[in-house]
Design a protein that fits this description.
about 260 residues; mainly alpha
Amino acid sequence: MSGVIPISNWQLALSTILLVLAGVLAASLRLGIVKSLAVSAVRTFVQLYIMGFILSVLFAQKNLFLTAAVIVIMTAVATQAATRRAKGVPQYPRALAFLALLLSTLITGLMVVTLIIRAEPWHSPRIVIPIFGMILGNSMNAVAISLERLYASMRDKIDELEVLIACGATPWETARDCVAEAVRAGMTPTINSMMVIGLVSLPGMMTGQILGGADPREAVRYQIVIMYVIAAAVTIGSFILVGLAYKRLFDKEGALLLSLKFSAK
């Protein structure tokens, strides 16, 4: 096979039959998600077509600043989605989540494009945007899980934490177990995915390259790199966010904030 097999408009339209089938099943079971399914389907179509147009322009320009702007916008959207997904979490960690996602993506993504893939130029949008997007997508889910688990864990253990504080423990000593639990929760989905990759499913990047005509062995190498990078980004992002967020739950004297105490009742 050489190159990508094109999909015509009518072939694309045929794929909606499967979506309609999902909608019919959801309606028959009265799941109450038919409207959400329809909206998400329309958004998928519109958003991907817009992104395709934007990427076509970016690939032609190869402008570092335009590429950087896209990465920042993607990070902002990922931050919004992550903080909205984390239940029982106040709104103020958004800035922390943005910082954690941006730093973890830059640290790992730049290492891939400059040291491993060695793209020419290193800021080529054709390389940078897909790789950074995959990193952000996985990190977004991880920080949402970590943030939610941090608050839930500290609420559940509020009495134990109060005892530690009364015994003179510092905020870090008090929250350390909760921080570790939160980071572990954020990493678990990625670890589980790595356990079965290649056995249960073929990941998206590898599948895309194979469909595009790449040698499966070369596609495997790229996918291994991406999975290792995602694991690193997820860990770094979760650690940065949780490491910054837990401090916001203590006042200057090292006591737990009243808002956390009341929400635990």
